[in-house]
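Next comes this protein:
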Amino acid sequence: MNGRELTSPLLESAVTELSRLPGLGRKTALRLALYLLRREPEQAEALAHAISEMRRGVRYCTVCHNISESDVCPLCSNPARDSSTICVVETVKDVMSIENTGQFRGLYHVLGGVISPIDGIGPDQLEIDSLVERVAAGGVREVILALSATMEGETTDFYIYRRLGTLPVEVTQLARGVSVGNELEYTDEITLGRSLINRRPFNS
């Protein structure tokens, strides 16, 4: 391709849009577009419909900020979950990782990232105030900090610990079965499950 536009403006447009997706370079985007051209039109239409419906129908839970198809997600509205324990994670993918361990029956709080000054992300860009409000409302006995074992994750842990310091709640964090520098989504389920079970009080 050598930076030149394709002979078909429609194909060019499709490749441009596909290449905006994370992890997809222009060559991979072209390969995907050409693959779709070889399939039946119904396959491309089904893909476009599924993406459109997902974008229209999926939102974020007003309580925990996990993805949901209603204002309150199925986890938060499930009376069988332990509402006295909140597990704080960075992203929706981390909720999925912990749920896959089968070791946690409490609720979640998705921050939407971690504090990272170099990336211009401060506490105000994260769902930290809403976490403090949930705990201050009462009924929460333990907050588990399940952020990645990175410098940014540790900084966010400490910030949350300080914000919750005046509230009557125990703050714990994952046991260090999760290696320093690891992101939660890349930790295997057995290690993650054990780290959750063997969590320890947060030590500032």
The beta strands are 59-60, 67-68, 82-89, 106-110, 142-145, 170-173, 200-201. Helices lie at 9-18, 26-38, 41-57, 92-101, 128-136, 151-163, 189-197. The first helix runs from residue 9 to 18. Residues 67-201 form a domain with the Dna Topoisomerase Vi A Subunit; Chain: A, domain 2 fold (CATH 3.40.1360.10).
